[in-house]
Each structure stands twice: as C-alpha cells, then as structure tokens.
Amino acid sequence: ISLRMSLTNLHISVFCVAEIVAQDGWAVRYFSKYICAPKGSEVTMRCIYRYPKGHSVPKAFWTKEWGQGSEPPDLSDNPEYRGRVQYLGDEHNDCTLRLSDVREKDQSKYYFRFITDKPGGKNQGRGGVDLSVTDLQVEVPERVIEGDKVTLTCKTTCRLTVRPTLTWHRNGHRLSSRTDQFHLQPVSSEDVGRYHCGVLGQNLLSPEVTLNVRYGPKNISVSISPSGEIVEGSSVNLTCSSDANPPVQNYTWFKGTSLVAEGETYTMKKISSVDSGEYKCRSSNEHGVKYSTALSLDVLYPPKIASLSISPSREIVEGSSVTLTCSSDANPPVQNYTWFKEGGSSPVGSGHSYRALQRGSYYCEAQNEQGSQKSAAVTVSVKGI
Ligand SMILES: *[C@@H]1O[C@H](CO)[C@@H](O)[C@H](O)[C@H]1NC(C)=O
Ligand SMILES: *[C@@H]1O[C@H](CO)[C@@H](O)[C@H](O)[C@H]1NC(C)=O
Ligand SMILES: *[C@@H]1O[C@H](CO)[C@@H](O)[C@H](O)[C@H]1NC(C)=O
Ligand SMILES: *[C@@H]1O[C@H](CO)[C@@H](O)[C@H](O)[C@H]1NC(C)=O
Predict the structure, then answer these.
(1) Class of 302-382 per CATH?
(2) Pocket residues for ligand 2 (CB within 6 Å)?
(3) Is 188 touching ligand 4 by the criterion CB < 6 Å?
(4) Could you tell me which of 102, 232, 294, 356 has the fewest CB atoms within 10 Å of its CB?
(5) Lowest mean pLDDT: which of 20-29, 79-88, 173-182, 298-307?
(6) Which residue's CA is the closest to the ligand 3 atom numbered 6?
(7) In this predicted model, what pLDDT tens digit does every residue of 54-82 receive, in sequence order?
(8) Could you report the per-residue pLDDT of 247-291, keeping only the tens digit for each?
C-alpha cells in the first residue's frame, strides 16, 4: 500500500476492503444515496465498484430497474435520455454517471450494473441513487401592507443537494439577492411587480408571482371644473383624486371645518357668494386617511344692493353741502361709483362719496367687471326753501 495515499483514496480503500469481505469481492458504492436537483440542471452520480481478481468488465451501465430475472435495460438506450446521459466511469472501478438537463420525469432510482467475462459475473449496486427533481416557486405573503417587513422566498419541493446561486427578477429586471430569500424591509408601493427566481447560469425560472402592496391614500389632489373664474350662478364641480390600494372607499368634503358633502365629486349648482371659502377633501380606505391641501374658491359677483347714506342730514343749509356716500358689496370690489341726478342724462360725479351742493334727487351706480347696480334715489332739500 502506497504511503502517499490521499485521504479520499484511503477512505475508499477501507470501504472496499469491507465490501469485499462482506460480498465476496463484488461491490458498488454510490457516493450519494439521494440527490435533489433543480429542473434543467446537471447531476453527477458518483460511484465506484469492485469485482474479484481475474475478471474483466465488457459491459458497465446504468439502469432504472432493479435487475431480477431478465436483464434490465441500459439507460443510454432509452430515447427519453438520448443525449442527456453520459457515462463518465470506466471498465475498472469508476462508475460515475452524468445526467444533464434533468426533467421532472427523471425522478427515479438509478442503479449501476456491470457484467464480467466470467460465468455468473454480474452485479448491481443495491439501494441505487434516488433522484428528486424540483422546480422553483416564489412564495409571497398573502396580505402585504406598505411598511411591513416582507420576505419573498424561492421554494423548492426538496432540499437541494448542491446549493445553487439563485437570481431574483422583478418585471424582468435582475435584483441583487443571490440567496433563496429576497427582503423588502420595509416594503413600499414601488415594490409592486411580478417576481420570479431562477438558478444562476441555468435556464430555470420559477413562474412569475405578483406582489400586491396595500397602502393608504397618497397623492391626493383637488381639481375644479370649470377652471378659471367662478361666476355666481354657474355650476361648479370639485373633484378629489387620490391613489390608494385598495381604491379610496370614502371621499368627504369640508368647507372650513364643516362637512358639506360625500363622494368623489362635489357639485355646486348655481353657486353663490356664500359658497366662497376654503375647501378640502378627505380620502380614506381601510389603511389610512389623507386630507388634501385647501382649495380657495372665490365666487365673483356684480355689486349688490347699493345703499346710499347721507351726512349730516337731508337738508342743506344755504351755502353748505351734504355728503352722499355709496356702498355696495361686490367681488371683485366695486371699481367705479358713478353719481347721477334724476332728470339729468350725464353723471354728476364719481367716487365713493359725492358732495351735493344743490337740491335734487341723487342716486349712485356701483360697477365692477361683473355688472352694475343702481341705488335708490335720495332727495336733498335746501332749508327754508
Ligand atoms: C403622485 O403623482 C405624481 C404626478 O401625477 C406622480 O408623478 C407620482 O408618481 C405620484 N406618486 C405616487 C406615490 O403615486
Ligand atoms: C359636473 O359633473 C357632472 C356629473 O359628472 C357633469 O354632468 C357636469 O357636466 C359637470 N359640470 C362641470 C361644470 O364640469
Ligand atoms: C366609509 O363610509 C362608510 C359609510 O359611512 C363607513 O361605514 C366606512 O367605515 C367608511 N370607510 C372608511 C375607510 O372610512
Ligand atoms: C369707471 O367710470 C368711468 C367714468 O364713467 C369710465 O370711464 C370707466 O371706464 C369706468 N371704469 C370701469 C372699470 O368701469
């Protein structure tokens, strides 16, 4: 015995000596009794064998059947294995087999069998190699809420004998993880997508699984229709929109702090000046509530009920005057006040106030871009006349 024998050789030799003693010099040893391999991968079934001195081996092959009675078929003659099975062993003591592009149908026990040139010289390795073939499956938690710590797992149906390097993909784009787990901690709505895992360097991919992330309302905004100036008497829609998953359940409208309506769109028909104010919408689903920023609604209207006040009295003392003041509510505010004296055709003055020096009936007209309004007339008399 060589003293420079490697540890592996030593191990094999010891094993073979034991087998020879137990089995009259006939032995087959499989290095793995069980192999779990991913679909499409290449599997090597390592194997060594021994036979009594003086024999030589004209036939050595693998088979899926336990040989009793008739001679079991050689795997390499099986059309289903054509081009995929390769005997790496020899006619002396190595019986290693390589099977490539493994398929689900390959799940079976595999036995090495050899025949020698001496009468009765046959042996088949007991137990065989049990091959399981697995595909990949991405496991996603059932209910994922934004902010959760989520782990996606690439599952196999058996525990892989050789741990491969895995790959992860979202919507077809490669992700960084190389293990059987992909962590999303915390998960966000941007992680939504179709995921699959695969084996690096092999054409094996799991089916795609969709990750759905639930979240409360976000990106809430209010729009107004028609846009631009809102004129009294017109019809206006306020519409709230917000992104949420599941979609927003309830939209609620507030004017200031009072609730004024429910629903995505708040319609105000024949809008009036009292509808001016700050509006907000609230959107909610089962995961949260969100308020929009306030939208300021400014309803435009022409001057209303122009009124005249007079100071100090309706009577002018000879040589003095009274001041007439016109006021009116309008949006935008009154731009022009124009003064008229009844009976006259042209204005007698302009501005907020008018100093009347003569008797007569006066009225004002308030005007903004929306329209105009005339006041009732007041009569100014001169004392003693
Ligand atoms: C919010 O809306 C803007 C503009 O529509 C969009 O670009 C952005 O992606 C949205 N954000 C989210 C979280 O949906
Ligand atoms: C407001 O919404 C209603 C219903 O969707 C629609 O019929 C109407 O034309 C809208 N009005 C405006 C001013 O957009
Ligand atoms: C939506 O409104 C309905 C009826 O008012 C209420 O029962 C439900 O709880 C509301 N849902 C949310 C998420 O606020
Ligand atoms: C205000 O009144 C004056 C005089 O009548 C007129 O010339 C001017 O156009 C008016 N301005 C507006 C904005 O109505």
Answers:
(1) mainly beta
(2) 225-226, 235, 237, 265, 267
(3) no
(4) 294
(5) 20-29
(6) 250
(7) 999 999 999 999 977 788 999 999 999 99
(8) 999 999 999 999 999 999 999 999 999 999 999 999 999 999 999
Pocket test for ligand 3, best of 284, 285, 286, 290 (most atoms within 8 A of CB): 284
11-133 matches 302-382 in fold: yes
CA of 285 to the centre of ligand 2 (A): 25
Q: For 11-133, which CATH class?
A: mainly beta
- Alpha carbon distance 342, 312 (integer Å): 21
Output the residue whose Cα is nearest ligand 1's atom 4: 219
Ligand nearest 287 Cα, by number? Answer: 3
For residue 17, pLDDT beyond 80: no
Closest ligand to 252 CA? 3
Q: How would CATH label the architecture of 137-213? A: Sandwich (2.60)
Does 380 score more than 50 pLDDT? yes
241 has a pLDDT exceeding 60: yes
Torsion angle of the four alpha carbons 200, 201, 203, 204, in this order, in degrees rounded to the nearest 10: -20
pLDDT of residue 112: 96
Q: How many residues does the chain have?
A: 385
- Nearest ligand to the CA atom of 188: 1
DSSP string, 69-112: SSPPPPGGG-GGGTTTEEE---SSSB--EEE-S--GGG-EEEEE
> What is the fold, at CATH topology level, of the domain defined by 215-297?
Immunoglobulin-like (2.60.40)
Reading the block at residue 161, the tokens are 């004998």
pLDDT-based confidence at residue 2 (cuts at 50, 70, 90): very low
Where along the chain do its domains lie?
11-133, 137-213, 215-297, 302-382
Widest pairwise Cα distance in the chain: 160
What is the CA(365)–ligand 4 centre distance, in A? 11
Residue closest via CA to ligand 4's atom 10 equals: 336
HSE (side-chain half, CA atoms, 13 Å) at 310? 19
Rounded CA gap, 77 and 80, in Å?
A: 9
Q: Which residue has the higher pLDDT, 156 or 202?
A: 156
Is the CB–ligand 4 distance for residue 372 below 6 Å?
A: no
